[in-house]
Design goal:
The protein has helices spanning 38-47, 70-81, 87-95, 113-132, 134-152, 166-170, 176-183, 187-199, 206-212, 218-227, 229-237, 242-275, 301-316, 343-357, 360-365, 410-428, and strands at 7-11, 14-19, 22-23, 34-35, 55-56, 62-63, 284-287, 292-293, 298-299, 320-324, 367-372, 377-382, 398-401, 404-407. The chain is of the alpha+beta class and 429 residues long. The protein has 3 domains: 3-81, no CATH class; 84-275, no CATH class; 284-428, Methyltransferase, Cobalt-precorrin-4 Transmethylase, Domain 2 (2-Layer Sandwich), CATH 3.30.950. The strands form 5 sheets. Strands 1, 2, 3 and 4 form a 4-stranded antiparallel sheet that branches. A hairpin with a 2-residue loop joins strand 1 (7-11) and strand 2. It is globular, with a radius of gyration of 24 Å.
Length: 429
């Protein structure tokens, strides 16, 4: 059979991938390939085309010829990421596995290899420094070097690094910021990170994390991918001659781009579908427009203020996503209702308002607006601010309270700030 022999049927409130009347199960044969969003199931089905001719196993899973595909990502996501029983594994992904991460050190010595490898890993490592700070980064790399030399010497010599047990490492705060970002990602984004981690032979969790959280580009991912120890040795040290080196380089480069692009496409595609099926909550809200009142069909500054208020509230609470161009009933209106000449002009208007009324620093680092061209809707992803930062709008502090934004009185703002600091101090201790 081929991908086009499969069909999608609705069962209750979910869409299920089937072959005639047989429900297709995950690669492990335990769960149905199903989701509330038909687009996600369509994406998984159509992506199976890369696997060529398919076979249905006795357990109703698909033999996909061991090709890295959306079906494989979704299968592992269901069995390894989703569900409370998988929280221990999720915690290890970010709180433990960075200790063993090959991205954090280079094993080559002398020119030209040492500099070449360092350059390939540089962009990704600089992003880690931006996230956790230089001091925490130095601790993290020290632990990684300790594992590297410890494995070489059976634990007798950590080299330039430092030995630390798994349990002691988990209890450190070195990966706190990374975990906060990871914890705020969707199951699909976490599933993509987990899938790439597996494709990397479990040698780096930080590289997939940086890609899927959009801290680095696909090109930067590919550069670092080739710089990882095993890959770098395979291309630049183990090759017999320049011709073989170029062939191996192209092989790994193509693989890096292919794997990264699929995982990113999967995360973005499924997130787009999820954005339009989620209920409003403390981390999710819909706005019909950016500046036009849909009741009066007139440009109204109050509409823009409501958008900015929601952004501020997300920043001060848990972070979240604001979807613009969708009404409360999840009906797509589209940002064309705001009557800008182009989508670029719409985006510039929003960024200018954020810049002037919330702050340029926050726009660059914590507020991420974009337009989903397929649906023609605006998305503003907001990260939770660190405790030392507070967002305000016209002197007012807003926080999320359930599915809405609340303005704090002066006394409430003081109490909120004190509680916030207290929670942060407890977390550090």
């Amino acid at each position: 059979m081929f991908f086009y022999d499969l069909n999608i049927e609705k069962e209750n409130s979910e869409y299920v991938l089937k072959l005639e009347n047989i429900s297709i199960l995950t690669a492990q044969g335990k769960n149905k390939i199903k989701h509330k969003s038909k687009k996600i199931i369509e994406f998984i089905k159509n992506d199976l085309d890369r696997c060529g001719e398919l076979k249905l196993k006795k357990n109703n899973s698909i033999n996909f010829n061991n090709i890295f595909c959306a079906y494989a990502i979704f299968s592992d996501q269901i069995t390894q990421i989703e569900g409370s029983e998988n929280m221990e594994y999720q915690n290890k992904l970010i709180n433990l596995y960075p200790k063993y991460d090959h991205l954090l050190y280079r094993s080559t010595n002398g020119p030209p290899f040492e500099l070449d490898q360092e350059v390939r890993l540089r962009n990704a490592n600089n992003k880690i420094i931006e996230i956790i700070g230089k001091n925490e980064y130095e601790k993290l790399t020290s632990y990684a070097w300790g594992e590297y030399y410890g494995n070489m010497t059976n634990g007798e010599d950590p080299g330039p690094g430092k030995f630390i047990s798994d349990q002691d490492f988990i209890n450190t705060k070195v990966t706190k910021k990374i975990f906060e970002i990871f914890n705020g990602l969707s199951n699909e984004e976490k599933g993509s990170i987990n899938a790439l981690y597996s494709m990397l032979g479990n040698c780096s969790i930080l590289l997939p994390f940086l890609l899927i959280s959009k801290k680095i580009t696909v090109s930067e991912y590919a550069q670092a991918y080739i710089g990882l120890n095993n890959n770098f040795y395979y291309v630049f040290i183990d090759a017999k001659n320049k011709k073989e080196e170029n062939k191996r380089y192209q092989e790994l480069s193509d693989r890096a781009y292919s794997d990264a692009s699929l995982a990113l496409d999967y995360a973005e595609h499924t997130n787009e579908a999820n954005l339009l099926t989620k209920d409003e909550s403390v981390i999710h809200e819909y706005k019909s427009s950016l500046r036009v009142n849909i009741r009066t069909n007139q440009i109204d500054e109050k509409m823009t203020y409501e958008v900015l208020r929601a952004i501020v509230a997300f920043l001060n609470t848990k972070g979240g996503t604001l979807v613009i161009g969708v009404d409360d009933d999840k009906k797509i209106i589209g940002i064309q209702i705001d009557r800008f000449k182009s989508n670029d002009e719409w985006l510039r208007f929003l960024k200018d308002k954020v810049l002037k009324q919330i702050g340029g620093e926050l726009l660059e680092n914590y507020i991420h607006p974009e337009i989903l061209s397929k649906e023609n809707i605006g998305i503003v992803k907001c990260e939770k601010l660190p405790v030392e930062k507070t967002a305000s709008l016209n002197g007012n502090i807003y926080i999320r309270q359930g599915p809405s934004s609340k303005a704090l009185s002066p006394q409430e703002a003081v109490d909120w700030a004190n509680i916030r600091k207290l929670k942060d101090n407890r977390a550090k201790n």
